[in-house]
Specification:
The protein is an alpha/beta fold. Helices cover about 30% and strands about 20% of the residues. It has two domains: about 130 residues, no CATH class; about 270 residues, Alkaline Phosphatase, subunit A (3-Layer(aba) Sandwich), CATH 3.40.720. Strands 4-6-3-12-5-11-9-10 form an eight-stranded mixed β-sheet, with helices on both faces. Helix 9 packs parallel to helix 11. The longest helix is centred in the N-terminal third of the chain and has 20 residues.
């Protein structure tokens, strides 16, 4: 594949130039050529989203787009909230975005605003200029930031929820509806990338960059040594770019309070924590049960003994207790009604801690697969059965990590895996619209 692409780049570009200049008889007749190349044959919008969610060396070796049958989840994903695999239906990527509170101007947010805009907008609200803006695609949403600047930024992310899910249960989220009515909001925000793996989307919210830029492409990622690990686990690679929380800590001398409360460590991308490698970084990280998210936020918002001993200004240890801007990030999981009640409790706790000087943003990671989906885990098992040996290391939304040592021992190439995967069928026909190697995404600009 690599050799072919090199040949195309060497000989194809001059040929196109000759065609453009009409050298010889190259313009005598029009020739229509239909692209059958893997990945390139997909719709351009779908391609751009997959490319934004891909990073070479960290993403799966084989990627796939679902056909008529919905495919969801994979290794380690709970059945109820399994993320959908990429498909031509982009509705799952529609998410709410709502800013409210101190420093937020009431109004509408443009439809299509992507999640990469959240971190830059929060920085704008506290008049904070982040370093290295060129490494992130996200831009602040115009007209949202106002005065005065709040002492606490509260970021709440609803996991496994999209705008379509909220629309299907209009009476289940009265508090969020009130937030959207009194602040700057849209129901037509966009994840901006695929797949909708929560670990990837949460890191996009935290950094202001796409997975292609921050490198947390999902629940599982490859290390530089080729090991497959959970994101943010011991031995996992750090995000490629810093989060807003990382930048706040670094630029303000570790004085801001940075807090994270969530149910899984893979959602740490909301705040990061060690991008600058500071030995004095002491972010407050709480991994709690789903039903303990609210109480954990209440406890954490009041501060800690460690902060008091560190000499917090004025002796106050709570979030938003002084004029140094703090950031609290909460990732919630569960039913919409329960999350809405939890959101109300969290906002109240933050308001009490910061004496009302709080800017809130609420968003979500996108809709999960419907209950009728075909499991990515089952697809991996079927593929292994078709080949006759176990060659898959993990199935994740949008693709498969392959066991390279097994392929080497069996003398098989990735092409064989791709061919067998493309042949898999469900009750209504072939499961996939397209199956392609990772290198096809790396060279997407040539499509």
């Amino acid at each position: 594949m690599m050799a072919l692409l090199v040949v195309i780049s060497v000989f194809g570009v001059p040929a196109l130039l000759l065609r453009f200049l009409c050298v010889g008889h190259s313009c005598d007749e029009e020739v229509a050529v239909a692209s059958e190349a893997p990945f390139c044959s997909l719709d351009s919008e779908l391609r751009s989203r997959i490319a934004a969610g891909f990073r070479e060396g960290r993403s799966p070796e084989v990627l796939a787009v679902a056909g008529d049958a919905e495919i969801g989840g994979g290794t380690g994903f709970p059945t109820r909230t399994s993320p959908a695999w990429p498909s031509s239906d982009l509705g799952a990527a529609r998410v709410p975005i709502a800013f409210a509170g101190e420093g937020v101007v009431e109004g509408a947010i443009p439809a299509g605003t992507t999640l990469t805009s959240i971190a830059p907008t929060l920085a704008d609200i506290i008049n904070f200029e982040r370093p290295f803006p060129e490494v992130r695609s996200g831009k602040a949403i115009e007209g949202v930031a106002g005065k005065p600047s709040p002492r606490l930024l509260l970021q709440v992310i609803l996991k496994g929820v999209g705008s379509d899910d909220l629309a299907a249960q209009p009476g289940a989220w009265p508090f969020l509806r009130g937030v959207m009515r009194t602040g700057a909001a849209t129901m037509d925000g966009d994840s901006g990338s695929l797949p909708l793996d929560p670990a990837a989307v949460v890191s996009t919210i935290g950094t202001g960059g796409s997975p292609r830029q921050h490198g947390i492409t999902g629940e599982f990622v490859r290390t530089g040594e080729g090991r497959l690990v959970h994101a943010f686990s011991d031995g996992a690679e750090s995000p490629v770019i810093a989060t807003l929380a990382d930048d706040l800590d670094e630029e303000l001398g570790q004085r801001p309070l940075i807090g994270f409360v969530g149910a899984t460590a893979t959602d740490r991308g909301a705040v990061g924590g060690d991008w600058y490698g500071s030995s004095s970084d002491d972010d407050e990280v709480v991994i709690a049960r789903k039903d303990q998210i609210g109480p954990s936020v209440e406890m954490l918002s009041r501060g800690s003994v460690e902060r008091e001993q560190a000499g917090r200004v004025g002796g106050d240890t709570g979030f938003g207790a002084d004029n140094v801007p703090d950031l609290m990030s909460v990732v919630m999981d569960g039913g919409i009604k329960r999350m809405d009640r939890g959101l109300e409790r969290i906002v109240a706790a933050a308001g009490d801690a910061a004496d009302g000087s709080v800017a809130l943003v609420v968003t979500a990671t996108g809709s999960p697969a419907t209950p009728e989906f075909v499991s990515g885990t089952e697809i991996a098992r079927d593929l292994d059965a078709a080949i006759g040996e176990r060659v898959t290391e993990a199935a994740v939304p949008g693709g498969l990590f392959l066991d390279q040592s097994a392929l080497t021992e069996l003398g098989l190439s990735e092409d064989v895996v791709i061919e067998e995967l493309a042949r898999l069928r469900g009750p209504d026909g072939y499961l996939f619209e397209d199956v392609f190697p990772a290198i096809a995404v790396s060279f997407a600009r040539y499509c």
